[in-house]
Amino acid sequence: GAGVSQSPSNKVTEKGKDVELRCDPISGHTALYWYRQSLGQGLEFLIYFQGNSAPDKSGLPSDRFSAERTGGSVSTLTIQRTQQEDSAVYLCASSFFGGPETQYFGPGTRLLVL
Amino acid sequence: QQQVKQSPQSLIVQKGGISIINCAYENTAFDYFPWYQQFPGKGPALLIAIRPDVSEKKEGRFTISFNKSAKQFSLHIMDSQPGDSATYFCAASMVTGGGNKLTFGTGTQLKVEL
After folding, report:
1. Which of A83, A108, B40, B74 is deepest in the core (most CB within 10 A)?
2. In this predicted model, what pLDDT tens digit does every residue of A21-53 receive, in sequence order?
3. Which residue of A9, A37, A43 is the best one to mutate when testing the B interface, meaning the one whose CB has the most B CBs within 10 A?
C-alpha cells in the first residue's frame, strides 16, 4: 500500500517569505507527527495530532510555526516569515494509535531559506 | 537538554564484523526504545524496538540490549554487510501519556567496508 507522502520534495524560498509543507499520512492512521532534521539539531519533534484531540505543539520552536490537520487526514505545516535557521528537512510520520505503534516516515521536504 | 545521547558519531566496520551503537537516556518515564535506519534522501525506517520489561530482543542480524538500571541500550548488527551502510538513530518515547513522541539520539553513520 501507499506510504506517507510529502510535498513538495524540495523548496527554496527567500528569507521572510511564508511556506507551506504538506503531508499525506497512511490511510487509517490516526496519529500524525511532524519532525525536523537539521545538521545542528538532529531529529527533533515539532507537533503531534491524534484524532480530534487538541494537537501537542510542545516542540514548535517559535510562533512562526503552525500546523493543521484537516478531516483527520492531510496535514499542513506552515512557517511564516522564514529565517535561514529554518533550513532543514521536515519529516512527517503517521501511525495507528493505542500503543507503541510504529511510526512510518515520509521522505521529507528539504527546505532551503536563502 | 539532550535526553538521548548516542555514540559513536561514526563507525567503520569490515564486512562480516559486528557493529555496535550505544545510547543512554535520562528520562525514566520513557517506555519505548526504537532504532531507526535512514538512507540518504529517505525518511527514517523502523529497524527494531524494545520495551523496558525485557533485556534483549533479536530480529535476524539485529539485536537490542537494554539495561534499565544503567539507562542504556545498544544496537548490535551481526555479520555486517555493505547494504547496512546507513545512518542509525536510537530513540525513546513515552507511550503511556506521552503520545509516543520520539526523542532521537544524534545518529551514527555506519560504513561497512568490503
Report:
1. A108
2. 999 999 999 999 999 999 867 899 999 999 888
3. A43
